[in-house]
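Internal tracking record. Fields below are filled automatically when a chain is submitted to the structure queue. Please do not edit lines marked as system-generated. If the sequence contains nonstandard residues, flag them in the REMARKS field before resubmitting.
Queue: standard
Priority: normal
Entity type: single polypeptide chain
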Amino acid sequence: MNPASIPARRVVITGIGAVNPCGNTAPDTWAALIAGRSGLGRITRFDASLCHAQLAGEVKNFDPARPLPAPLHPRGPGHEPLLHSMTLKDVKKFGRFTHLGAAAAVEAYADSGLDAHRATLNPDRLGVNLGVGLGGLPEMEAMHDTWKAGGFRKISPFFIIQIAPNLLAGQVSLLLDFRGPNMSVASACATSGHSLGEAAAAIARGDADVMIAGGAESTVTPLAIGAFAQMRALSTRNDAPEQSSRPYDRDRDGFVLSEGSVVFVLEEHGQAVQRGARIYAELRGYGASADAYHLSSLAPGAEGSARAMRAALHRAGLAPTEIDYVSAHATSTPGGDGEEAAAIAAVFAENKANLHVSGVKSMTGHLLGGAGAMGAFAAVMAIKDGIVPPTINLENVDPVCAATGLNFTPNTAVRKPVRAALANSFGFGGTNASLVFSQV
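SYSTEM-GENERATED OUTPUT FOLLOWS
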């Protein structure tokens, strides 16, 4: 049979995990988002007093070696149970982005209920695609200082393991005995959007039955904060951290850099139904495009982003009028928000009266490599619970954004049935990812 004639298999979401400034689990994160609670604050990881941007979204009260709520048995009876996503020994071995990503991945796996069915699942059909944008930047900075002070003999033998972006995916496959496709995407702020889309494609074409997919990032460091600040990309509203990220607002002045991870379990629909899994939503469509315009700015009217959205809708087989919510990239930068809003308004021109748009970075800040998965999380949970999370700090809508006629869901969550939702993530280099989710 010609592979092109094989019908694509349906892909559903059966597990979610999250560690980020708004919460250390997926339920806690969702509770914060629908309540409109910001997770942003002054930087505590280092002295940022000499930098004009002094804000970040730091993960708080996180213990990477915390015991799991219940033991897991990914290798089945007779093998050592999994009691932690990271042992104390592993904490020293891996970088912080792996600490965060492994915790979210193990939470997603436990949430999916797959552990009870491992005896019937072929580990060769279980894969991982977890993306990281910048990788182990904190560890790079620290090890450079160590080398400068003490020479080559002071360099840790674990340094490469700490910084290599694909080590998160590798560690998760080892923890959970997932022996299928294993890879890591790096496409800046679109990273985890692409990870989800490519993981879904692997299931759809028959290369895997289950994929753990999403992204992680931890780059709240002097170099990252300083570099973005020098680009004039960060908010300098240092006296009011919780009000600093304000997508679509007239007085927005940049994004707030954050750390964290969001991870999903994607599963072939038939298998999920057969085992009686709880299904959050179906991943219906994925669109990827390039602006080919500028390395750090959206194309005029975000036309490349619009192409990604249209491609995702086409793949999903849904019309724009069937989408009830757009989880926007919406970084809170002066230029980007208006361009993306124009693209959303163009794609959904016939549906603006019924469409809600919101930017959860107003609460979470910008997770870089984890941003696409965070946006997808908002879309999926809106479908599951019938609640659209708000764009907080939206006090005076920018006239350019207001002119699009879109409803940006200011400050308060909205209860409404969400049949289908679209999530955007765009990155430096002009790379775009759009995902469409729907009720099953």
